Amino acid sequence: MADTYDVIVVGGGHNGLVAAAYLARARRRVLLLERRPEVGGAAATEELAPGFQASTGADVCGLLRPEIVDDLNLAARGLRFLPLDPEVTALGDHTSLRIWRDVWRTQAELMTKSPRDAEAYPRFTAFLRDFATALDPLFTMTPPNVAAPTLREQMGLLRRALAVRRLGKDTMQQMLRMPPMSVRDFLNEWFETELLKASFAVDALVGTFQGPFSPGTAFGLVLHFLPAVQGSGWSFVKGGMGTLASALALAAREAGATIRTNADVHRITSTDGRVTGVELSNGERIVGRAVASNADPKRTFLHLIDPEELDPEFLVHVRNFEMNGVVAKVNFALDRAPGFPGASEAVPAHFRICPSLEYLERAYDDAKYGSVSVAPFLDVFVPTVMDPDLAPTGKHVVSTLVQ
Ligand SMILES: Cc1cc2nc3c(=O)[nH]c(=O)nc-3n(C[C@H](O)[C@H](O)[C@H](O)COP(=O)(O)OP(=O)(O)OC[C@H]3O[C@@H](n4cnc5c(N)ncnc54)[C@H](O)[C@@H]3O)c2cc1C
Fold it and tell me: The CATH number of the domain where 16 resides is what?
């Protein structure tokens, strides 16, 4: 008789791997199916050119929950963080600004640009840290049933609301005001230095189909102040992001999960409204009591599942869900360290070209009307500054997000 699994996980990105590892630790029979030759999804290290290794998708890790690192013992499985400090060097027209992990060091640097901004900076970071810390427990909560929350779910939400209330009236008012604001309006209330504002706006905007003038973009800043990010900071992973995927895969396998690569799931099978397993592109059928999909929602609900099995209203919501890609990733293998104008010291591990809020908005304007930006902002990582083993001696890998 064919193997039957408790859970089949479709896709071996880092989220699929984490799900597989936890389910296997909970003694479920788990099969993870990844269509590519390697697991990791966008968390991948690949060879760019002979001897040059690069994180070809995501560059830095910051939002991985510390609980997961501990539970799955990822340090013992090869995961090592290399925290960025300065976190970023922002480049404008003949000017630069470093944002350090240490608030006071950044404040000292800002003093040379604007004493007013230097004074505001610690209050700005404290507000965002408080906001993010108040929201942080939501990330590990089982999402409540919004239509009909149980008493327990209501109590959980109430506890969160009280935690916010305890931060004081002023902070609470700011928290209610901020989320619908544009990141431009929010940053203009705090600062006057254009480069500082533009650099924080990039944090809020990267990967989104929005510009700094778009309502609601201010909230993106909060994610950069979550305790997980504040704890270890945005970091390279030694060996590239693929090392994270390998550590997760090892944890899943050691907990008992089976991982198969080159296994493209063609459809999720079902009978009478119940999932029965999956069918691969080669026609192989695998039986499972439940299927967890790590593929994106549109692929999962519009392509992998028979639409007849789903509520038509739900399908309308999925179809209306916007997922416009706005980022191009360009990786370079260089025979020497890149130089750049405007910054006096050696090449930093992370720099960005984002002269002003208006520059960012114009880059978005092009995308909004269906073109590639004529003058995009660039978020540039040079991982070999901190992890020279990724390239032959003296040579460098440069990874650029273009938006
Ligand atoms: C260019 C770029 C840069 C980024 N940079 C960062 C960064 O620096 N830091 C950061 O925190 N985040 C970054 N992100 C975001 C981050 O990479 C993603 O949020 C994250 O990788 C999503 O992980 P995931 O496991 O949910 O999905 P994915 O990584 O997309 O994994 C999904 C997996 O499912 C597999 N799959 C899909 N369909 C099937 C199927 N039918 N059968 C079998 N397998 C299937 C895919 O092959 C893939 O391996 C970046 C994203 C992009 C695109």
Answer: 3.50.50.60
Residue with tokens 């639409």: 307
CB atoms inside a 10 Å sphere around CB 181: 17
What pLDDT, on the 0 to 100 scale, is given for residue 149?
Answer: 84
Q: Provide the domain count of the chain.
A: 2
What gap in Å lies between CA 80 and CA 182, rounded to an integer?
36
**What kind and span of H or E run contains 20?**
helix 14-25
pLDDT score at 394: 93
Instruction: Give the domain range for residue 301.
Output: 4-59+241-320
Low-confidence ranges of the chain (pLDDT < 50): 1
Eight-state DSSP code of residue 338: P
Specify the pLDDT at position 269: 97
Q: Answer yes or no: do 280 and 347 share one domain.
A: no
Residue 147 in tokens:
């239509």
DSSP calls for 206-218: TTSS--TTSTTGG
Task: Classify 2 in phi/psi space as left (phi over 0), alpha (psi -120 to 50) or beta.
Answer: beta
Looking at residue 338, its pLDDT comes to: 83
Residue identifier of the C-alpha nearest atom 5 of ligand 1: 58
Residue of the CA atom closest to atom 53 of ligand 1: 57
Residue 137 lies in a domain: yes
Do residues 230 and 336 both lie within one domain?
yes
Ligand 1 binding pocket, CB closer than 6 Å: 10-16, 33-36, 41-43, 57-60, 62-63, 264-265, 294-295, 299, 327, 329
Q: Is the dihedral of CA 243, 249, 250, 252 positive or negative?
A: positive
Q: How many CA atoms lie within 13 A of 288 on its CB side?
A: 25
Q: CA–CA distance from 222 to each of 125, 129, 379 (Å)?
A: 10, 8, 19
